Amino acid sequence: QVQLVESGGGLVQAGGSLRLSCAASGSIRSINMMGWYRQAPGKQRELVATITSGGRTNYADSVKGRFTISRENARNTVYLQMNNLKPEDTAVYYCNADITNWNYIQSLYWGQGTQVTVSS
Fold it and tell me: CA-to-CA distance for 44 and 83, rounded, in angstroms?
């Protein structure tokens, strides 16, 4: 089994910063793409940022220049540094990971979500 555990959410004022972490554990042979998504109340889940195993990144236009995704492959961990936060960034943030296990089965896993609230 594979688990993704997120941490680092919370309440912050507009203009502030937060750093989210997501650690994968379990039967992991390799991790390909890792990413962060978010879902605000009444809205669909949307992509925030992704990062490949080689470090290539992709960002939603709404967070470019403010958020930075990174990963530590040795720790099976992905991070999201969020700076200059805005009230519209308020959402539940989910990490996901494309993982191949020791039986060579590739699956997409999701974390449980962490709340980020930005006050104006």
Answer: 23
- Gap between the Cα atoms of 59 and 42, Å rounded: 22
Give dist(CA 7, CA 13) in Å, integer: 18
Q: List, in order, residues 6 or more apart from 111 with CB less than 8 Å away.
A: 4, 5, 6, 22, 94, 95, 96
- Contact predicate 80/67, CB 8 Å: yes
Spell out the residues 6+ positions from residue 23 whose beta carbon is closer than 8 angstroms to its own: 4, 5, 75, 76, 77
| Tens of pLDDT, residues 41-95 | 999 999 999 999 999 999 999 999 999 999 999 999 999 999 999 999 999 999 9
**Are the beta carbons of 11 and 87 closer than 8 angstroms?**
no
* Mean pLDDT rounded to a whole number for the chain: 97
Residue 17: per-residue pLDDT: 98
Nearest-angstrom CA–CA distance, 69 and 37 = 12
